[in-house]
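Recap for those who missed Tuesday's class. We walked through two folding examples back to back. For each one, the amino acid string is listed first and its predicted structure tokens come directly after. Nothing is annotated here on purpose, so try labeling regions yourself before you check the end of the notes.
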Amino acid sequence: MKTRISLIAVLFFSLVFSGCQEYLEPNDDNRLTLDVVLANPEFAEGFIMKAYKGLPTNYNFNEAVASDDAVTNDPASNIVSMVNGGWNAQNNPIGTWGGAYESILYINTFLENMDGVEWSWENTMQNELFAKKLRSEAHALRAWYNFMLLQKHSGVGTNGELLGFPIVDKVLSQDDNYEIPRSSFADCVNFILADCDEALKNLPNKWEDTGDVLVDQVNGARNTNRINGLAVRLLKSRVALYAASPSYSTSGFTMQEAAQMAADVLNNNGGLDGLKGSDLEFYNDPSSSEIIWASARLTNQTNWERDNFPPSLFGEGKTGPSQNLVDAFPMADGTPAETGASYENRDPRLGKYILYNGASYHGGTIYTYSGSGIDAPGIDKYSTKTGYYLRKFLQEGVDIDPALSSPVGGQHFYTYARYTEALLNFAEAANEAVGPNDVIGGFAAVQIIEALWHRAGIPNTYLAGLDQAGLREVIRNERRIELCFEGHRFWDIRRWGLTNVLKETATGISIAPDQVSMSVVNVEGRNYDAHHIFGPVPYNETLKYDLIQNEGY
């Protein structure tokens, strides 16, 4: 875990945008000393920017493929070996250990040295605002990265205890003991929540201009793509929900606490007012009110479409939604759909997120029935394995026809936090704590699902009279639908302790040439064991010192 800081790497972003010639002159060792860095606020902020740079900006849909929601037609994908029994401490393609600790190092370095930085020499008030804002961002980002460690590497250790990760809250010096043991799961949760509370002292819910130029230079809309107070509140609700879930419930956290933290998000973001149909396709509009925190918008992009368009549109069709997921979308009246049910009279979200046989798209029709052409299963190496193609997150207007003189791109951005997750966090926690109809923080669980169904165009008749167990199934299904391809399903079934679902075979649909006869077919097995409820600690880390591994790894 002993790590050295390369200031050149940390400060590259700031250096590029600095116009000061003196800083372009290399020192004897071609590095900037810490004293030089701290004398320049742009350089000092580079530690924070380096932590931001560690956040994802590209959807690869690996966690959907690792779950029962999708398969890939890419035989070289490391997820293929993972789902076929190869998920272990030496092969963990969805781990985050090294990257998270690297970002935490930059953040800790910043927190330990920022008090000596003059952020604004022109204005004392602005200098104080910068210091408060940046300190809060640092605590927020550290909480974010620590949750990634908690989600992907916590579990029941070989000592029988529920463990989290080694908490590193400072920059380790040569005199420190680097053999930091894994803390208890509960201690890790409390550490994350404490960082969140520290961040909320000075982070606004949203970055908005006030009209005061000095204030807006610090806390204004120019910070749109940086973490904000609402994202931190959402993170708190996510952490608390995980901690209270069946796989982690021995930690002592309760669903009542999780519901209260989620209600805090709702009460700071207008509750259920303003939900609208366009929220369902938030990824088409970076200004959507559904988005709490997202990466910067990149224009003229084609990579997601090249990877996932059907081959008839010159894509590689890598992510194939499963029949399992398609079956999760209810009928138009909210009643559960039968396995392999017709696409007619279904939840409108099905057509928004998944391309199925007969779907209108890109000025034409996608056909996947037997004999229909290149988009049908098994016709081409880029053809779907399941009979379905991904639609969610892809820009329909992108055109990658090689006959064009240049491709037509679209806008891409990665969403870190969206409001619907907060709504679903609350619904789940409130239902588990007090049932469908009792109120926590001004809301009831069934009220949230009614609002989400109304937004989707589904009547709430089916919800009437559901007991706690019945609404639990609906809420879990809503998470699967609303948050599909956003990295939640893989971890949801694990925190729920659903070892039976871990092993469910991913299925697809076989459609006869008459497009009437259809049958569900097995596509790809899921070779997970019970211990795969938790992810592993990297094997190499356990070689460095007596770091406890999770059971089964």
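Example two. Treat it independently of the first, because the proteins are unrelated.
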Amino acid sequence: MTGAVILSSGVLAATAMPAAAEDCSAYPWMDTSASSEERANALLDASSQHQMYRWLVEQPANTPTRTTWNPGFAGEDPVVYPVQVPCTPVVIYANGPDGVYGKAGTTAWPGPIAVASTWNLELGEQKAAAHGSESFDSRSAVVLGPGIASGRTPLSGRTSEYFGEDPLLSGLMAAANVEGLEQGNPDKPVVANLKHYVANEQEVDRTTSSSNMDERTLRQVYDLPYEIAVKESDPGSVMCSYNQVNGVYACENPILTTSLGEQAGFDGYVMSDFGSVHSTAASLDAGLDQELNRPIWYTPARLDAALAAGEITQEQIRQSAFDVVHTYIEKGLFDHPVPATAIPGVSTAEHKQLAREIAEQSTVLLKNDGVLPLADDAPTVAVIGQTASKTATSGVSAKTGCAWYLVFIRGTALNCDAIVDPLTGITERVEEAGGEVVYDNGADPAQAAAVAAAADVAIVFGHYTMGETTDLADLRLDANGDALIEAVAAASDRTVAVINAGSAVEMPWIDDVDAVLHAWHSGEQFGPALAGLLWGDVNPSGKLPMTFPKSLADTPTNTPEQYPGVFSDGSTTRPAGSDEIRQVEYSEGLQVGYKWYDEQGIDPLFEFGHGLSYTEFAYSDLKVKVDRDRTGASAVA
């Protein structure tokens, strides 16, 4: 009998499964009356050396009856292990900081940057609990997420996966995500994997670049959100990143022990990103416990050789194996195995309602010159743009606005087939009031302008696509989107722009439109959520978790040395055939995000925390009272 493991690359691999359930009651590591430490040590005490090695690599750790793997390097013999000790679980890892990837019947949630825009930790935890339930029912017990980055450049292709530029907001949002995943479903336990540690701030040469900075910048900007997340939520695992940090690869960098372990207090297990290990002894010495995917550097042959040479110790091997086994037991994976087969249709009505609520609370009203909320007295509404409709135009549809792009599955990361598109949501709302909706895909701006001119209000959609492995080239809209919005705004008396993008957007047309809603990647309930916001059934409450610059030149990383980084010849272009490490200088130091704009006196397009609502506020008769303590220090109350 076989099962299927989803590799970190998104590939399915067959795995051996036991023919029948074993009686595990006699094994001390299955004694639930013992502590998790006692159980983990009992298992390791019963293990041979090479059985212990299995825990140091993802696939051997989690497919206990499989014994052979293809070699990691050409010309090497196959990697062989003994069968694992009895009664160890099949544990499947699944990528997906924002939801279950690529599986029908799961919920397509708004992206993490959208969740951060709610500034609602409770809502973030609820979403993660629902995500964890769907992951477990889909047979994945370790979720590779949430992700943290510090928003050094809005061009980073994975910005949609993260929680913005502020260390406190990012750290607390990540902690809420971890708590929802690991504690939200006691009978469906999953382990969260906080990633990518650390200073993994660009996709350009992410595997062959060095993030170079001083100690204070590392601690106060890039380490800090991880420290907050670790101390607030105690995640089971952390993933080290591809890049070097000050010339040393993150997965063999002493900061795994010093900054992450000793200072932040992390006591779970550290796993690598796929292919981010470059050594055996140096990685183990630094604190890397587990190599992701198949054995390459942590093979039995390499570990045996390092032990024989005195480069590593038996105590280090045991500690890394203990970190993995103990985490699995402590988090419940030994006592609550995933279902034998995936449960279909795990996206419940409650999950869909939660996805809609997040989409509503995360959409940011950036501008409103009085056109919103719309009244029911507009008999004709023009809906214009590719991402408004499920019908694709040149490969772009509402699914493009649903979720960010994942290169490994050649499409949106989440299952966006179930999306209720904006055209449907708006049409239902307008027709209910006796009005009419006219749709144009926006491929021809002149034709779209004619449609807009004949309507009482025009709702025009713009977007850009982004995803893993590639950074954005600029912050402008795709598919001639800027020209489309400008044409529609020139033709319509009332124009509302709706933007789907996972990062900041330049808006050369901002003065020409009456209102702007930034909807991020809004998930499968985008249509109903947007309709509710447009007509005021829901009050906009989203706030930006990152600064939107007027132009890319205003951002902190405005020299080639800062981004994308340079090579020894001073060029930003990698020489043909070269594997030289790109040097990325974090010379802006602490001035990341809003701190840069404040220090430099640069007015952004929209500042961090910006977000309007339909409520009007007024302040009057303000008073300030100053109290002095015995030392003469003053405090404002």
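Answers for example two:
The first strand starts at residue 2 and ends at 6.
The two ends are 69 Å apart (CA to CA).
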